[in-house]
Amino acid sequence: MSITNFVLLLLAGCVAGFLNTLAGGGSLLTLPLFVMTGLTWESANATSRVAVLLQSASAVWGFYRQERFPWRDALVLAIPSTLGALVGALLTHLTDAAVFEPVAVTLLVGVGLAMLLVPKFTRPALAYEVSERPIVHPLLFAVGVYAGFIQAGVGYLLLAVFAAVLGRDLASGNAIKVALVLVFTVVALPILGLDAPIDWGAGLVVGGGSMVGAQLAVRFAVRASPTMLRLVLVGTLVVVIVAAIAS
């Protein structure tokens, strides 16, 4: 790995870790960089999960240290999302990734419009217990399938489900989100590695930067006002949608 590639991957990892912890879409930054360093798309998709795993672990630890980690909700909701991720990862053996690209863009545009036009997506008025909203389980299974297959932008989908169905605000939603991503990435990573070689060196470099970005995002999330979080979320989503369409 050249010095230039090392620096680019490290910086990209830091930015991606910040985005993925606070909102989502960081993989749309790191995947093209992995390809630029010589990896195939399949290998880049698998390698990116190394960084996602490390940044998610860092973010969970950060929220725990800030005493903002909802253990009970995270453990319950991890079950359907992880089962979905297992199915999605297995689908990579059968389906061309290009099939999911228009689906990904459509989902991200839909979530973005909802966050802009429907206040409860980012400013929920009432929180519900998971047991009061059983519909959350099949929804998270579906999101898990998407995450196991392509990952990019899954954070927005999780936040949308938490807000619309459970009434969670962005701060608590982010804490649950990073926990779910951590668990289902553990499941998806080895399966994706069966089809394509994982570049552990590149993945660990990006992962190291991602861990730093994740810690910065946790500190921002627990201190920023709901309005600021909403502006950052919607702003990054617009960028992610443009990048997805352009690619």
Q: What integer value in Å does the Rg equal?
A: 16 Å
Strand % is: under 5%
Rounded to the nearest angstrom, the distance between the terminal CA atoms is: 25 Å
Order of helices and strands: HHHHHHHHHH
Q: Assign the structural class, choosing from mainly alpha, mainly beta, alpha/beta, alpha+beta, or little secondary structure.
A: mainly alpha
State the helix count. 10
Q: Please mark out the parts with pLDDT under 50 across 5 or more consecutive residues, or reply none.
A: none
Oligomer: single chain
DSSP helix fraction: over 70%
Main beta sheet strand tally, sense and closure: none
User: Could you give the count of β-strands?
Assistant: 0
Average pLDDT taken over every residue: 79
**Shape call:** globular
Count up the domains: 1
Would you write up a description of this structure?
With 247 residues, the protein is mainly alpha-helical. The chain has one domain. 78% of the residues lie in helices and 0% in strands. The protein contains 10 helices and no strands. It has helices at residues 3-22, 27-36, 41-65, 71-91, 100-117, 136-149, 154-166, 170-195, 200-223, 226-246. Helix 2 crosses helix 3 (41-65) and helix 3 packs parallel to helix 9. The two termini are 25 Å apart. The mean pLDDT is 79.
Write the layout of secondary structure elements.
Layout: H1 3-22, H2 27-36, H3 41-65, H4 71-91, H5 100-117, H6 136-149, H7 154-166, H8 170-195, H9 200-223, H10 226-246
